[in-house]
Structure formats: C-alpha cells, structure tokens
Amino acid sequence: LQLVDVSTLSGLNKTTTHRLLQALQSEELLDRNPGTGAYRLGSAMMALGVQALSSNDLRLRARPLLKRLAEETGETATLEVAIDDTMLILDEVSSKHVVGASGNVGTRWPIHATSTGKAYIAFELDGTLRLRPQLSSLTAHTITRLDVLEKQLGDIRRRGFAETVD
User: Fold this and answer.
1) Per DSSP, what are the bridge partners of residue 30?
2) CA of 45: how far to CAs of 22, 30, 40, 55, in Å?
3) Of the candidates 26, 86, 157, 160, which lies 20 to 30 Å from 47 by C-alpha distance?
4) What are the Cα distances from residue 32, in Å, to 75, 141, 152?
5) In terms of Cα–Cα distance, which of 90, 74, 71, 138 is closest to 111?
6) Sign, CA torsion 24/27/28/29
7) Which of 30-36's residues contact partners 24+ apart within 8 Å by CB, and which partners?
8) pTM for the full predicted model
C-alpha cells in the first residue's frame, strides 16, 4: 500500500500516517519498496505471525484430527477460522492427489467461496455474519449472487456438509 492508501483507510492525515509508518518500519514491522514507495509486511511482522501460528493451541490440538480426516477422505483437510467475511487457514494437511486443493497456511479467502466458509455460514448459530450484496468471484464457478448462495446453504444444512468444486 502507498502512504495515501494507508492515510485514507486509517482516516489519519498524511503527516501522522507517515510518522507511524516510519516507526513501524524502524522496528522492521513494515518494509518499504524504494522504487515504488509501497509498504508491505516486514520481517519482524512475519516472524510474529509464524510464532503465533506455531504456538496456537487450537492448531496443535486439531492437527491429529486433520491428519485423520485427510487420510480417511483422501482430500486436503484444513483448519480455518472466520474473520469478518473471510476464512483464515490456520493449518492444512494436503491430500495424496497429484493435483489437489491447497490454500497455504495464513491465506484468507472470501467466506462464500470455500467449502469451510459455506459450512460456517450454513450452521452459524449467532446470526452475526452479514454478507455483502455483491459477492466477489475467485473463479468462473464462484457463486456471486446471494439468492443462489442461500439455496446452496439450504442444501448444505440438509446434507450436513459443504463442498466447493472449482
């Protein structure tokens, strides 16, 4: 992101934003591309992310279950958590297929475009999730209309599982 983007998104003026970005850069939490001026995550921030993932109790406890699920189904098994209208992959055990789904730990996908996300939406108990009226498309097969997604969620509730074939 550029300085103006961060300033706009944060609602802070450019001077304050620049000072904060400089402070984060000095701690290696951000890096700045000298050619474009764009900011990106720095090495210290990435190290924090890796440390957080490796020490996550949920991830450690779920790993044996993911391994068993991948083995029994022959498919990739992922541990994901909902963050706003996305699903964050915390852990993954790949299938034995030569060509298989792989999302990479740390990746966030639109919640409506993944089987895990669809299952979460279908069985969400507190009803706090609000999807945008226009859903983003990842592939030519991604559902982008709420009415079509609602029908699929009903099918998921009846079957007890979700799948995404893209």
Assistant:
1) 41
2) 14, 7, 10, 15
3) 86
4) 39, 37, 43
5) 138
6) negative
7) 36/2
8) 0.65
